[in-house]
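Extended Data, panel c. Modelled sequence:
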Amino acid sequence: MADFKMPELNSVIIAGNLTKDPVFRQTTNGTPVVNFTIASNRKFKNNGKWQEDVCFVGVVAWNKLAESCRGRLQKGSAVLIDGELQSRSWKTEDGHNRSIVEIKARRIQFLNKRMKVTETGQEVEDEEPSTYTDDSFDKFLASSEGENLDTQEPEEENKQN
């Protein structure tokens, strides 16, 4: 049987609304991180009747991408997330093992229009870009190259469920 190498593909694109306000924090070495959950709706027909299903998905963003979310996201905000699935596990304070699969965002597009007030008191649409991209370049490196860098992405320290 011929050797078959599975392609290394891990990509997710999903749109939804934040279920609650995002949680902003920093790691012990000062790296910004934000976590939030989105609800993504799916409509389908079942026996001729339209039904709706909701999928709740956790999202994590790091560095400048996390900072770009500050002041732009709140409960109900609509976003389009481009990222990859990642899993992590930890032990709770009471000794139980927990694990989660979430999206590590590479790009976030803010779908709600952001308004600002001009000097004359008129509300106009903000000219800031509505899409922010992860500025890290680790996705372009082979895993062995990334291990040689001094500034690797830190592991989360206060794991939350």
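DSSP finds two helices and nine strands in the chain. This feature is highlighted in the accompanying rendering.
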